[in-house]
Amino acid sequence: MPFSFLLLVLAALAVVSYRFGTARARAVAPGRQSQLHSRPMYHGLYAAIWCGVPALIVATAWVAFQPVLVKGLVMGGLPDSYSALPEARLNLIWNDIRNLALGDVVRAQPAPEIQAAADTFHRLYAIGNAALAVLCLALAIAGTSYALKRVSMSLRARNQVERVITVFLVLSSLVAILTTVGIVLSLLFESLRFFGKVPPLEFLFGLHWSPQTALRADQVGSSGSFGAIPLFTGTLLISLISMCVAVPVGLMSAIYMSEYAHRKFRAVAKPLLEILAGIPTVVYGFFAALTVAPFIRRLGEGVGLSVASESALAAGLVMGVMIIPFVSSISDDVINAVPQSMRDGAYALGATKSETIRNVIVPAALPGIVGGVLLAVSRAIGETMIVVMAAGLSANLTFNPLDAVTTVTVQIVTLLTGDQEFDSAKTLAAFALGLVLFCVTLGLNILALHVVRKYREQYE
Amino acid sequence: MEKANVREARETTSETPEGTTAVTDAKIQAVRTNVHYGDKHALKDVTLDIRAGEVTSFIGPSGCGKSTFLRCLNRMNDTIDSCRVSGTVRMDGEDIYDPKIDVVQLRARVGMVFQKPNPFPKSIYDNIAYGPRIHGLAANKDELDEIVVTSLEKAGLLAEVKDRMEAPGTGLSGGQQQRLCIARAIAVSPEVILMDEPCSALDPIATAKIEELIDELRENYTIVIVTHSMQQAARVSQRTAFFHLGELIEVGDTEQIFTNPRHKLTQGYITGRFG
User: Is the ipTM above a cut-off of 0.95?
Assistant: First the structure.
């Protein structure tokens, strides 16, 4: 019985035991349902949980351990001559056996002992699956009958069901946390390997970035250099330009939307503004590369400046437009959250609308606005597509916005795309860059959360 | 019809001692003031004089229009989109709804204290200094300091906060916050102070302090107070106006309203039969 089919059967059984559970609860207290500790529905769920959960746990454990078990048995069954072979060779043989057994493409003529092993493999799996099915069904039925037997007036079914639900909720939240931990660990270990090849200080403070590693010692560019400062400055420069666009525009549009705009205008304009956040970044990217960058270059040539065709300015401007919604949306929410009584207090003192906004509302909302801006900054630093397309690849150490620069994210993309060997300093550098990026955006996010939380305390 | 009778009764009895001088004495005169919130007719044809140098209290059950009328007096209703005010409200003989009147200047002359203390999330000093700053009342830092100290003094708060002027105003207790708001209103030297249930969020001790303060402020300011507490109206005010369902039912000397109300609705309300 295939695993998915087994799951379906289990689900069907759970539904049936739910029915039985509710019916049994009703039967226990005919006409006196108010005296049941838990409503019949909870008795049903209780039975369904006893039916499904133990069987599922066993099935999951089986799926996790079966391959190990089968491998041990199959490899142990091979002739003695095989056990002396090195680990890597054994793994290859294991692959052959598996492919053969599962009917995948295999080498032309397998050796007889391999064929025999594959047969064993096949047999073991068939037995295992059958055993699993029988075991699961038996467990499901046993669980249901146990639950049904326990149904009584005083059974605290609701409390137990709710406890199980709590466990599910905890597990769900753990998934997100564990994923984050996994990402951090993978970054960390790859970065440690990189720092084994390149010293951390050279990486963090080196001024020259040219991540070429040669295959042979006599090749050109055999000495790759991994000084990440040009990337950091490039990232910083582009983020700075984008914030110069996004913060004033976003903040002012938020003030207009929340304080001045007519309700009808706001109802139309706010969703329109938020559409900006829904445009794919690739689209922004080619808008930057094909429209904005040439425009800036022509403009620069018009006033006698030499502008690179891929300039930090173009990428920064377009990225700024992209993150306007972040700033404006959060600022708008925060400004709206300033209590009306603050405005009343200022108006009652004879403050004009603009005085009220400048002196009372914006200061009161400032922590929240700062939180929004910090979130936008971490978005700008992590943004990849626009800079890949519009900012260029050359790691210039410059603060001139008219030059081409490159950013941390762009370099990660170029280091990891294409055919790469995965143990060279070149590819491992991507993980180190990723780690730095992660640390910076994590720090900014923590700072932003902290600032926003502080704001919440302001009006009790 | 009944409305007109009430007004006549008031004019012929409670105001005869002063005769016509009562009218010229009026700091604020409202004549046939109506307020609509959208379709809702919240205030109906209210005609009322508020005399200078006295505390006038507005009483009445919830939703009777007393706060709405109060907010007409410094045009705070302008901040509500759906609100329309018609009729005349004169202050010192000038129509405050005249387009020539600058609402900002009006509000500098008519201060307001709200139901819930609403100090700005700034320091105590900046809370008081805010009004004088925007109106340019102080030429330099010393004058501003002077205004802040005097205002806090008048509001009876100086002794409690003089050592922590830079602490945030939101950190004070409820009663202190409300006195801070009164000090903030005083700091722009208004002529009239409107108070919208200023003690409803306070405990009895803080309430007693505010009431004491209102009595002291009466010397220099014309005060209008909306209150739900009839005892409070009796304690602090010289004149009392009773509102019911958007209409002004009766207005007169506080003593007369509470001992000898003319209208049976007023009598019913003050004896606790409804409201």
Answer: no
Residue at B275 is within a domain: no
To the nearest 5 percent, what fractions of chain A are helix, strand and coil?
75, 0, 20
End-to-end CA distance of chain A: 60
pLDDT tens string A171-217: 999 999 999 899 999 999 989 988 888 888 888 888 888 877 655 55
**pLDDT digit string (tens) for A377-401?**
988 888 888 888 888 788 888 888 8
Given A137, A155, A173, the domain boundary residue is A155
Closest of A452, A296, A310 to residue A390, by C-alpha: A310
Helix A87-102 × helix A112-150 angle, to 10°: 70
pLDDT digits (tens, 9 = 90+) for B114-150: 999 999 988 999 999 999 999 988 889 999 999 999 9
Q: Which amino acid is at A192?
A: L
Residue B192 lies in a domain: yes
* Contact residues, chain A, for B131 at CB < 8 Å: 349-351
Q: What pLDDT is attached to residue B54?
A: 92
**Domain identity same for A110 and A235:** no
Distance of residue B123 Cα from the nearest chain A Cα, in angstroms: 12
Beta bridge partners of B173: none
Q: How many domains does chain B have?
A: 1
User: What does the alpha-carbon distance between residue B25 and residue B36 come to, in Å, rounded to a whole number?
Assistant: 29
Cross-strand pairs, B37: B40, B83
Judging contacts by C-beta atoms under 8 Å, the chain B residues touching residue A458 are 121, 170
Interface of B with A (CB under 8 A): 74, 76, 79, 81, 104-108, 111-112, 114, 116, 118-122, 130-131, 134-135, 170, 181, 184-185, 188
DSSP state of A74: H
- Does a structural domain hold residue A236? yes
Q: Min CA distance, B198 vs chain A (Å)?
A: 13
What is the residue type of A127? I
Is residue A184, in this structure, part of any structural domain at all?
no
State how far the Cα of B220 lies from the Cα of B189, in Å rounded to an integer: 10
pLDDT at A384: 86
Backbone angles phi, psi at B122, to 5 degrees: -130, 180
Q: Inter-chain contact A349–B184, Cβ cutoff 8 Å?
A: yes
The letter for the amino acid at A257 is M
The range of the structural domain enclosing residue A287 comes to: 225-456
In a domain, B68, yes or no: yes
